[in-house]
Amino acid sequence: MIRKRIAVIGAGASGLTSIKCCLDEGLEPICFERTGDIGGLWRYQENPEEGRASIYKSLIINTSKEMMCFSDYPIPDHFPNFMPNSKIQEYFRMYAEEFGLLKYIRFKTSVCGVTKQPDFSTSGQWKVVTECEGRKEENVFDGVMVCTGHHVSPYLPLHSFPGIEKFQGQYMHSREYKNPQSFTGKRVIVIGIGNSGADVTVELSHVTKQVFLSTRRGAWIMNRVSCNGYPGDVVLLSRFNELLVKIFHPSLINMYLENKLNQKFDHEMYGLKPKHRAKDVALTK
Questions:
Q1: Same domain for 135 and 12?
Q2: How far apart, in whole angstroms, are the C-alpha atoms of residue 168 and residue 186?
Q3: How many CA atoms lie within 13 A of 259 on its CB side?
Q4: Are residues 109 and 169 in the same domain?
Q5: Cα-based distances in Å from 4 to 22, 28, 118, 129
Q6: Fewer beta carbons within 10 angstroms: which end of the chain, N or C?
């Protein structure tokens, strides 16, 4: 029986697991990776690459290793609960080597186009055009798995900042940020209180003259580490807590969560209390 050929686009976290799943199902995967290495988002480089997500040097994941590990390959016990990007990349390498995935990856190969075959309605096949070292190639596949992530293109709404064209200082998206050294002694404002905004603000606070964190609607601040030093997501995302959510009214759940978060610091006193309730954030982490 002829095995079906599957094109996997990208060799990051999703791409590697897709290759493994294809092999488990008796399929023949071929992965196309435009760079020269695996890892995708988590492979740190000093200079951002076009078409690839970029991270800052100090980035630590906000999901515990217990929650983020692949089900068929636990993260080693000696790795930290919350891993820096270098450890995540190391884990991906271990995973790829353990299951022999590297031989299915074509590095420095870009996918230029994916189109349906003329007989797609009956064959379900796709034509994939790739380019490597200036040479294009066409191949037909029975399926395509797009594993390119969604953190590639920065969102920089300069139209929301009247007068930005006259600003004499430096401005950038967090995608371009790598380390705090160039901001030593300066006054800096970080716009956005998401994970990256909070990380960058804390790091800059050690070297800048003054740093501000701007948010338009407040936020519930949740720590990585929870009660008794356990990872926050391990404590929060349990079968018992899921049962409580089904039993108790949302207002009671919100009251409990917000009380716990305010024990760290009073969000209203710091001008951070948002209009949305804590449960909306907690259950999506």
A1: yes
A2: 13
A3: 6
A4: no
A5: 10, 6, 18, 18
A6: N
Enumerate residues 6+ apart whose C-beta is below 8 A from 243.
none
Return the bridge partners of 210, or none: 187
Could you report the per-residue pLDDT of 103-116, keeping only the tens digit for each?
999 999 999 999 99
pTM for the complete prediction?
A: 0.89
Per-residue pLDDT band at 285 (split at 50, 70, 90): very low
Same structural domain, 9 and 140: yes
**Tokens 């034509």 sit at which residue?**
127
Tokens of 78: 């000696």
Same domain, residue pair 178 and 123: no
pLDDT of residue 281: 65
Q: Measured between alpha carbons, how far is residue 16 from residues 37, 114, 238, 281 in Å?
A: 12, 20, 27, 29
Residues 81 and 200 in one domain: no
- Of the candidates 203, 218, 225, the residue with the CA atom closest to the CA atom of residue 278: 218
**C-alpha–C-alpha distance, residues 87 and 237, integer Å:** 24
Residues 106 and 175 in one domain: no
What total of structural domains would you count in the chain?
Answer: 2
Task: Give the range of the structural domain holding residue 246, as residue numbers without chain letter.
Answer: 158-264
Q: In this structure, what CATH number is given to the domain that contains residue 18? A: 3.50.50.60
C-alpha to C-alpha distance for 90 and 42, rounded to whole angstroms: 10
CA–CA distance, 180 with 204 (Å, rounded to integer): 6
CB 155 within 8 A of CB 172: no
The span from the CA of 217 to the CA of 73, in Å, is 40
